[in-house]
Write a structure and sequence with these properties.
By secondary structure, the chain is α/β, with parallel strands linked by helices. The protein has 2 domains: 213 residues; 58 residues, no CATH class. Helix content is 38%, strand content 16%. The strands form 2 sheets. Strands 1-4-5-6-8-7 form a 6-stranded mixed beta sheet, sandwiched between helices. Strands 2-3 form a two-stranded antiparallel ribbon.
Length: 278
């Protein structure tokens, strides 16, 4: 591993990094490999993708605008939205559902139509865990479809949401067995690696590491990446600061209510010295 400020490879959690690896025609084979690994051949085998305009301006003046990280279609007409989500946000699920309406509505032709729809997939790569322990600690891939609540059968199989809780993926190199394992490891660790791991000798990863190597970039690309990296650092720093302020406020209130220091340590993660200084 390598310190964040000594990166050899780009951080895929940045806007520049994610779109560089997955959002360009030159690297669409990387996207295809990732999607095929994600579904493990159970849904379909994707052979090619066509990138679509990732910016949807809505149906009319004043409509909300949607901007997708990656938006593409396959030969059979299926549409994929692939999003890198840096941090938890209010109404994240609502936003995800709303975004899925764009590729649904765009399938409607002008004039007479029988309402036949092709498959729509939304893939969310999440740099956070769902709140309130919604899923077990060892469960990081979640595939959601519309189901009947009584007998649990899939009521409609053309609308699929897949969410990856990246912080939960903790496999090390010698535990990587499937292509999905390998892709998860790359996404989680790329910017901290000094070289391509032995377990990632597949041809697609050889290309990925070449495309991710910062030293290969032009001066313009390096400036663009540095700006994107700074934006990412500022964003995460702001969230961390807000989270710490919230923890300190809770600890201060607990202390004022006479809660013991040991209990405050247990529930806030603060040290005894920090609690005493409040």
């Amino acid at each position: 591993m390598v310190p964040d400020n000594k990166e050899k490879y780009i951080n895929p959690y940045t806007d520049f990094g994610f779109k560089k690896l997955f959002g360009t025609e030159m690297n669409k084979d990387l996207l295809i490999s990732f999607l095929n690994a994600l579904f493990n051949g159970e849904e379909k085998e994707i052979e090619d993708v066509l990138y679509l305009n990732g910016e949807n301006l809505g149906d009319g003046y004043g409509d909300p605008r949607s901007i997708f990280d990656v938006y593409c279609t396959t030969k059979d007409g299926s549409r994929f939205i692939v999003e890198m989500q840096k941090a938890e946000q209010t109404y994240f699920k609502d936003r995800s559902i709303y975004y899925a309406t764009t590729p649904i509505r765009q399938q409607a032709p002008k004039g007479k139509w029988d309402y036949h729809l092709e498959n729509v997939y939304t893939v969310g790569i999440l740099n956070f865990e769902f709140p309130n322990n919604e899923y077990p600690a060892n469960s990081y891939r979640h595939e959601i479809k519309l189901k009947d609540v009584e007998d649990n059968h899939v009521f409609y199989d053309k609308l699929t949401f897949v969410y990856l809780e990246m912080p939960k993926f903790n496999k090390v190199e010698n535990e990587l067995v499937t292509m999905f394992d390998k892709w998860m490891f790359v996404l989680r660790n790329l910017s901290r690696l000094l070289e391509r791991p032995v377990a990632l000798q597949d041809r697609v990863f050889k290309k990925l590491f070449e495309q991710a190597e910062i030293a290969r970039y032009s001066e313009t690309e390096r400036r663009q990446y540095e700006a994107s990296q700074k934006e990412y650092w500022d964003y995460t720093s702001t969230l961390e600061t807000a989270e710490r302020k919230g923890v300190l406020r809770i600890a201060r209130n607990m202390k004022s209510d006479g809660v013991s220091a040991e209990t405050i340590v247990k529930y806030t993660g603060l040290s005894t010295d920090e609690i005493e200084s409040l």
